[in-house]
Amino acid sequence: MEFFFGPLGIIIVVIILTGLRVVDQYERGVVLTLGKYTGTRQPGLTWIFALLGIQKIIKVDLRVRTVDVPQQEAITKDNVPVGVNAVVYFQIEKAEDAVLKIQDYTFAVAQYAQAALRDTIGGVELDALLAERDRIAEEIKKIVDVQTDDWGINVSAVKMQDIELPADMKRAMAKQAEAERERRATIIRAQGELKASENLRLAAENLSVPGAISLRTLQTIESTTVNPANTIVFALPIEVLEGIKRVTQAVQGGKKE
């Protein structure tokens, strides 16, 4: 009996030890028994009947993954050739579907993203592609998410990165931007000149009031006396000068007679 239970006990211990598995918190373990799906194990210590390959466990990482979509050559709706690359963020939500329904889900997601990127760019004009990048990326995300939903995959985001334009298009856009800057500068200068002319007009109206020039003259004299100087300033009201002018004209008229 001791001989019988000794080897049997060893076999049982071996079976138990060889079947122990640890599933990490960010993983799920898909169990296949004789090739058939029999359950999904949660995080923690678990056991399978691994002897003779009767059971096996496939661990699936549920963390968010990124797939780089290489530059895709496409033609916009207004016939402009562009090159666009993007990044896809996705996460597995159903581990059993990702294992049983698709062989290489990462490659499949990348292929769907490439096709969706080309198709979406072909349906928009260049101006919309440059100005509404986030909206177009959201459309691509929805397309890829619908296609991969059956695999237990959730596409969380698509980010468009570089948009490569033809060289002549870049030069044309640079000239357009320079022309726009010059236009704005011209408008600013014109507004400044208009403001200056308005100020001059108001100043002329104010000085045309009787006594305004005399007041201005007194202000000028006050400013010249701040620092001592040898200059003597004689201030004559403009009315006096005008009176002298009229007298002079009258005298000259009398001489002519």
TrEMBL record:
Domain Band: 18-177
Gene3D superfamilies: 6.10.250.2090, Band 7 domain
One cellular component term from this protein's GO annotations in UniProt: side of membrane
Source domain of life: Bacteria
Keyword list, A-Z: Membrane, Transmembrane, Transmembrane helix
Protein name, per record: Band 7 domain-containing protein
Annotated organism of origin: Candidatus Buchananbacteria bacterium RIFCSPHIGHO2_01_FULL_44_11
Assigned protein family: Belongs to the band 7/mec-2 family.
InterPro entries, sorted: Band-7_stomatin-like (IPR043202), Band_7 (IPR001107), Band_7/SPFH_dom_sf (IPR036013), Stomatin_HflK_fam (IPR001972)
A Pfam match: Band_7
UniProt lineage: Bacteria, Candidatus Buchananiibacteriota
Family matches, as PANTHER family: AT06885P-RELATED, BAND 7 PROTEIN-RELATED
Transmembrane residue ranges: 6-23
